[in-house]
Amino acid sequence: DGGITQSPKYLFRKEGQNVTLSCEQNLNHDAMYWYRQDPGQGLRLIYYSQIVNDFQKGDIAEGYSVSREKKESFPLTVTSAQKNPTAFYLCASRRQGPYGELFFGEGSRLTVL
Amino acid sequence: EDKVVQSPLSLVVHEGDTVTLNCSYEVTNFRSLLWYKQEKKAPTFLFMLTSSGIEKKSGRLSSILDKKELFSILNITATQTGDSAVYLCAVSSGGSNYKLTFGKGTLLTVNP
Fold first, then answer.
1. What pLDDT band is residue A1 in, cutting at 50, 70 and 90?
2. Beta bridge partners of A31
3. Which of A66, B12, B18, B27 is the most buried (most CB within 10 A)?
4. Which is more confident, A39 or B7?
5. Which of B45, B50, B99 sits opposite A45 (nearest CB)?
6. Cα separation of A95 and A27, whole Å?
């Protein structure tokens, strides 16, 4: 079945360590997005990408990095520069262009100890 | 900076009530507005609106967009406990790199 797979679902890390969250889609979508969700904050955009080898910063990109080497994959690295990394991270994709629904993965919950 | 504001932030009703959730926006180069329902983890898609004044309907849920006044409403009639969730509004905008900006969501609790 087509969909978006995020891994891991739960992740614990010590302060100061970089962490990479995986996002893979087999929907043949061009556009992919990373959002962060904190209680009472809705979804905040971290990075997004419309095509391979190109991506843009969202509203809260500081302390995060991404790559888009393949159409299917859009990994997110949470670096040690991110001051408050404990959160729920959602990856999404949709077809190219300004219209169409976002399809979401099941999310990754990162806890920094 | 693009802005999407939802109200109220939370709402408690009894089964059978009708609720109206609001979403207003200020974005550059508006393209479409989307509504999602989030119960546990991944949000699920409800509606996409692109044209003013045209109501989208699915069962007890309906939504309409006013592009002149820059807002949308989501109506739920005859609410059920299964409608309890966070309802998210998102706006698609941009000239070539299309971003989607979400509001903070409305937490709806439907009591029996």
1. low
2. A94
3. A66
4. B7
5. B99
6. 9
Q: How many residues does chain A have?
A: 113
Query: What's the one-letter identity of residue B110?
Result: V
Pick from B1, B50, B103: which is nearest to A42 by CB? B103
A45 at interface of B, judged by CB pairs closer than 8 A: yes
pLDDT tens digits for range A51-86: 999 999 999 999 999 999 999 999 999 998 888 999
C-alpha distances in Å from residue A39, one per residue of A24, A33, A96, B97: 25, 20, 30, 28
CA distance B8 to B25: 14
On whether the CB atoms of residues A113 and A14 are closer than 8 A, the answer is: yes
Does residue A75 have a cis peptide bond before it, meaning omega lies within 30 degrees of 0? no
Burial label, A59 (beta-carbon count in 10 A; 0-12, 13-18, 19+): middle
B97 pLDDT above the threshold of 80: no
Please indicate whether, in this complex, the C-beta atoms of B42 and A107 are within 8 angstroms of each other: yes
The type of residue at B42 is A
Per the listing, tokens 């698609």 go with: B92
The residue type at A106: E
- Phi/psi for B81 (5° steps) reads -60, -30
Window from A43-47, A92-96, B31-35 with minimum mean pLDDT: A92-96
Looking at this protein, which amino acid is placed at residue A71?
K
